[in-house]
């Protein structure tokens, strides 16, 4: 029994590393495609000025249809634990997830993609606030200071970029873009905390 127990930490480490690598590749691919779709111009056969893709609702719809199809197939062919969570509790995180995705795509019409990526790095404070509100989590004072320092650093960096860049750029930061970006951070923070609370309370699987 000892050799098998000694191999368990290595097995967990390898599984965790593989999962992190797959997640990183998926998010990197998603980010590249998201920027390409929403910020690049598309041209017809004949020469023209080109147009940008502006239908964020369609991207969210396709995203959800594919997610529903893949998760449905996975649930169909795998054995899952008994479903205990009330169905209505899924509606909260479903709505916030859909709206956060819409805000994420819509914000690219007003802010540059690097600005959006940097803003995501300052999502620590919304996540902590939603953690206290949804899951009643408690944090130490130094964790709040660290989150505040990260957010202030990102804010100063974004302000320096916007002041040094050209305001005539179609993707330059604007008040509308910052409001949509802030809405994305709040909604996405609520989604992750609400899902964590469902996992903790009802012991459901990730596919459920």
UniProtKB/TrEMBL annotation:
Q: How does it sit in the membrane?
A: Multi-pass membrane protein
One GO term in the molecular function aspect is:
3'-phosphoadenosine 5'-phosphosulfate transmembrane transporter activity
Membrane found in the keyword field: yes
Q: Which Pfam family is one of this chain's hits?
A: UAA
Q: Quote the subcellular location field of this record.
A: Membrane
Spell out the GO cellular component terms annotated for this protein, sorted alphabetically and separated by semicolons: endoplasmic reticulum membrane; Golgi membrane
Q: Which family does it belong to?
A: Belongs to the nucleotide-sugar transporter family. SLC35B subfamily.
Protein name (database record): Adenosine 3'-phospho 5'-phosphosulfate transporter 1
């Amino acid at each position: 029994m000892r050799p098998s127990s000694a191999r368990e930490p290595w097995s967990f480490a390898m599984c965790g590393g593989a999962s992190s690598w797959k997640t990183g590749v998926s998010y990197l691919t998603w980010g590249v495609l998201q920027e390409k779709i929403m910020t690049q111009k598309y041209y017809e056969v004949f020469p023209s000025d080109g147009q940008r893709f502006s239908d964020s609702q369609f991207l969210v719809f396709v995203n959800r249809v594919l997610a529903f199809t893949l998760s449905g197939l996975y649930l169909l062919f795998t054995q899952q634990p008994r479903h205990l969570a009330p169905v209505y509790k899924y509606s909260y995180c479903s709505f916030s997830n859909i709206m956060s995705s819409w805000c994420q795509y819509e914000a690219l019409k007003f802010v540059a993609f690097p600005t959006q990526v940097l803003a995501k790095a300052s999502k620590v404070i919304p996540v902590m606030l939603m953690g206290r509100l949804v899951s009643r989590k408690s944090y130490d004072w130094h964790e709040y200071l660290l989150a505040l320092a990260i957010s202030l650093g990102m804010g100063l960096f974004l302000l320096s970029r916007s002041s040094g860049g050209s305001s005539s750029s179609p993707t330059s930061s604007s008040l509308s873009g910052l409001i949509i970006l802030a809405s994305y951070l709040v909604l996405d923070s609520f989604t992750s905390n609400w899902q964590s609370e469902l996992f903790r309370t009802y012991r459901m699987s990730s596919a459920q």
